Amino acid sequence: MAGAGSASERQNRLAPYLLVAPGILWLLVFFVLPIVTLAQTSVAVPDGPWYEAFRKALSGYGTHFLRSFEYAISATLMALVLGYPLAYVIAFRGGKLKNLLLGLVILPFFTTFLVRTFAWKTILNDSGPAASVLRELHLLSPDGRLLDTTMAVLGGLTYNFVPFMILPIYVSLEKIDRRLVEAAEDLYCSPARAFFKVVLPLSLPGVFAGSLLTFIPAAGDFINAQLLGSPNQQMIGTVIQNQFLEVRDYPLAASLSFVLMIVITLGVLAYARVLGTEDLA
Amino acid sequence: MSNRESDGKDHELHRFLREAISRRGFLARTALGAGGMALGGSFLASCGGKEGASKAGEAGAGGGKTLRVSNWPLYIDKQTVPDFEKATGIKVEYTEDINDNNEFFAKIDEPLKRNQSIDRDIIVLTDWMAGRLIRLGYVAPLDDSKFPNKANLVDTVKDVSFDAGRKYSVPWLSGMTAIGYNPKKTKRELTSVNDIFDPKFKGQVTMLTEMRDTVGLVMLGMGKDPAAVTLADAKAACAKIKKARESGQIRKFTGNDYAEDLAAGNIAVAFAWSGDIQGLSADNPDLKWIAPNEGAMLYSDNMMIPKTSDRQTEAMAWINYVYDPKHSAQIVAGAPYVSAAKGTSEELAKIAPDLAKSPLVNPPDAWRAKLHVFRALSDEEETEFNRIFQDAIGA
């Protein structure tokens, strides 16, 4: 009797582990293993000390790192400015159109990211529609251009990652109990004040998740800079790709990836502390 | 192309290749080191293979296997593939997926090192890269018994330094790298390599990501001979490129894709491959390609069969087919470069008399004298030159 009880108790204790096992396995195979091999690669320097590649990565690519973070932060802010109001409208004013509107947000994913970025090349072309209109309006000088500029790269990054901002914000707004807003208004809160005191704080977990989902891939992106930027807009992702594929300096490419990963992790930790969102859904 | 191996250069190439081969032991060791990288390896392998493509195309029209040809963009006419299929019953999957020698090498290096299929039966790479593949033992010898048209190979390329007797490679086409431009945007005739640095064209010029082409041309503009390039020359040329890039003079470094920008009017001047402009000028008759006063770079791209291809017979049929002057003339009619098959000009005169007179297809002796080849580099030099160049182009 006692034995059977302890067996089922053991089963109960094991259950959580069994439940997380697939996740752990996935992480092991697709995260830990690649990280370990990447670490091995980064120190497999044919000549010189093991940290040689890291020394090169830290000393030679400061501008690329800075530029990447600058672009990624700007793109995240722009995505937030564009994405928050949209998510708000869908969640609070969407009505029957809610699903349709969400569908439209996801619609671009039905074509690949590469094709969509190529499409921007055509749109922003010197003789393309956007540039011609802006020239007519004298917002762009006659020999000015849109393609291969910082603005084009930022636009591309924002465009490509804005859905990752909208969706988590939408989810956190959707979860908000509307009666809290009503209560605030009953207590003589203006709609604006109710928004800043009630809605915004409750949606912060969504903002947090959304900005991470935008910032992290944007910081490591190499397609937008390559297709929409000039050689003076190249980001660290382009450098890593080039070191892997063109120069084939694998240790340097691997250590650049590591430095990028570490900086992003530290940044995210600091951000989490500032925003204080311990209850990330 | 025929003068690409002028005697002096050939000696130099020979010397360097001998040195490179003696370094083979070193190469093998670094290769082993890199092989330990499972991540890099599998990542690159997945880029290199076109999964599923091989299965889909297993059975061709003639019951045989589909021939998979990888080539550069704008490098063939539209009729040759269907004609070949009709004539031989071999189905062809022709892909224009080579845009850069190094990038393509990075894709195929890992699988070939591990003796795995790269799902391609013919690959076309530039001389220096062909030399590397042959040195590494990545390509299969050509079966001369299935290549009677080898007799049509022009004499000057029969015996090149990187492939004596043409046992592993034969030229697909050769071309020249120099200046392509849009006179509507430049508003003047260009005559010099250095015109690309004219501040009037700020933000409207592109250069190539092929290190040899770009560094070679800039060197010519500086009065240096790329056939005798030293590290100091390369550094000086790269410093000049870097300065122009940082000032915003250079809008982009490209592969074949400069052609789109030139046609779209985004750029005024580009380092360009000779045949591309002719190919584009059907829709953009204004575009021009010139061999500047200082000279131009000469290259040729070579067909090879990867050692892991299981379709050697089909591949040989293709190589033999395109060395029939009638067929090579047809290819040249669609891609105006220089063919290495004897009799091409005569056949071309029958189907495209105007083109047959073009210097792009038949460079006159005055031009040939101005063509330069980049010296063969040792592996150490290769890495060093590439590093400086990548830094110069901001990547």
Task: Describe, in short, the structure shown.
The complex is a heterodimer of chains A (281) and B (395). Chain A has 281 residues and is mostly helical. Chain A has helices at 2-43, 52-60, 62-93, 98-106, 113-124, 129-136, 150-175, 178-186, 191-220, 223-228, 236-247, 250-275.
Overall geometric form of chain B: globular
Separation of the first and last Cα atoms of chain B: 32 Å
CATH architecture of the largest domain in chain A: Orthogonal Bundle
Gyration radius of chain A, in Å? 24 Å
- Give the number of domains of chain B: 2
Largest sheet of chain A: none
Indicate the mean pLDDT of chain B: 84
Report the total helices of chain A. Answer: 12
Low-confidence stretches of chain A: none
Helical content of chain B, roughly? 40-55%
Task: Please report the two chains with the greatest interface, counting residues with C-beta closer than 8 angstroms to the partner's C-beta.
Answer: A-B, 31 and 36 residues
Number of domains of chain A: 2
CATH-assigned fold name of the largest domain in chain A: MetI-like fold
CATH hierarchy class name of the largest domain in chain B = Alpha Beta
Helices and strands of chain B: which structural class? Answer: alpha/beta
CATH superfamily heading of the largest domain in chain A: MetI-like
Task: Break the fold down into its secondary structure elements and pairings.
The complex is a heterodimer of chains A (281) and B (395).
Chain A: H1 2-43, H2 52-60, H3 62-93, H4 98-106, H5 113-124, H6 129-136, H7 150-175, H8 178-186, H9 191-220, H10 223-228, H11 236-247, H12 250-275
Chain B: H1 7-22, H2 24-35, H3 38-48, H4 53-56, E1 67-70, H5 80-88, E2 92-95, H6 101-113, E3 122-126, H7 127-136, E4 139-140, E5 170-181, H8 183-186, E6 205-208, H9 211-221, H10 231-246, E7 250-254, H11 258-264, E8 269-273, H12 274-280, E9 288-290, E10 296-306, H13 312-322, H14 325-334, H15 344-351, H16 353-356, H17 365-368, E11 371-372, H18 379-392
Helix pairs in contact in B: 3-6, 9-10, 10-18, 14-15
